[in-house]
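Case study B.
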Amino acid sequence: MAAKKSKKQSAPKATSNSSPQTTRLWLMYPPKLITTPVIWEVGHKFNVMTNVRQASVTDEIGVVCLELDGQRPEIKAAIKWLEKLGVKVEPVEINVIES
Amino acid sequence: MEKTEGFMKALKCRECGREYPLNATHVCEFDFGPLEVAYDYEKARQSLTRENIASRPQTMWRYRELLPIADKQPSVGFDVGFTPLLKADRLAKRLGIRELWIKNDAVNYPTLSFKDRVVSVALSRAKELGFTTVACASTGNLANSVAANAAAAGLKAYVFIPADLEEGKIVNSLVYGAQVIGIRGHYDEVNRLCAEIAGKFGWGFVNVNMRPYYAEGSKSMGFEIIEQLGWRLPQHTVVPMASGSLLTKIHKSYQEFIKLGLVAESKYKVHGAQATGCSPISIAHKGGMDFFKPVKPNTIAKSLAIGTPADGFYALKVMKETGAAADDVTDDEIRDGMKLLAECEGIFTETAGGVTVGVAKKLIASGRIPANDSVVLCITGNGLKTLDAVAGHVGKTREIRPSLREFEALIEAESKVNC
Ligand SMILES: Cc1ncc(COP(=O)(O)O)c(C=O)c1O
Ligand SMILES: [Zn+2]
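Model:
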């Protein structure tokens, strides 16, 4: 927590785009990724704190509910990276857009 | 607290059962489970009797003890619901079943879909909680309903849509003066941004922070079915699924009426219907799985095109518990279903209704709904909203010159064909 605070102060400008935030997500993995330490990688590649709240893994699909703490651009980059890998990234509400 | 919150007790996590105050909040802090409204059933039992219900106006609010508002009356959408339940003998004959009923929310008030039920609850509760601006992210029925009901209630409304949505779909929202915001980007990005916006602004976002209240509105469809059947449970109910919420709430409504002694307990099944082009829940159920895999939608049934259904897990549970089936139908079968309902019963439903009829047909043909049983089909939206889906598939106009002779010739040719 202290480390995060000092990060914020050293940031060049504090626009609304670079304030720390907590984002709650559901990740859904295809079978081929289930054995990969995806979350560990996210925590190392990006300046975000990961917090797994719940997880269930079957042969068919892995579902993880994850909290990401960090600057907004870092979180966005982490999400982009996960999507590139083939992970489906949904907000905690899952489908917000309804018909 | 009891007095000011009506018949509601708390918001309760569907996963761990932790309770939360009755605010605009929707997710459990511990496991991210969805929150649901819990009621004081003992208190509700005292006034929610068949006699009292019968004495009240014919709207969904005649069951207000089991709807999540604190005040005695809703402030939004007082006239919503109590749509016709009609015995559809001609359709029953065509599908080969003894008894078939149509619950017709294609004529729900004011925006011609079942969404008016959920929206009137969400907006009434939003007003109670002090919101003056409401919002939703929607590509169709929900947007229309929020825009219309907010206008009538004097609330400001924001509607978020993917920027590539066809113009025709938003006229129905713009006309009410709603602020419609198109978001450019990949569907998933738009979806995540909408969730962020919902969290950031102090608005009543009907299907996000108001969702526990919002979703409860669907129960009124089930309450009405029971009352209109003469206070009995249907053996089979066929329900279209997008997020899967409506199906779970129909089940909850049946359970609540049993619990309150308003209907005798009997075996019932709540079957789920999807379009083959977007059938994550139906695929999972048919495969005996209790979790769905996300899909990319490709179907004419746009109102059911949710590839990652938020309540899919709970819908699967209900179908398993009630021993129900799920199935899905192709675009052609959807159109056929729409035509069948229109030709047999004079009801023009949107593609979601075509899905329901098409799946019912399959379930009856395969014996999963036995021919000797009775079934209710939930028709949830109006065909005028999806004209494009059937245009070019419903026969053609035949033209003649202003000549009686030509018309007589046409009729004569027709009578030859008919014998
Ligand atoms: C016409 C119609 N029918 C059915 C549904 C399914 O609703 P649910 O998301 O509760 O499964 C929708 C949802 O958007 C709809 O618009
Ligand atoms: Zn919980």
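The domain at 20-91 of chain A is CATH 3.30.70.260 (Alpha-Beta Plaits). The remaining cases will be described in the next quarterly update.
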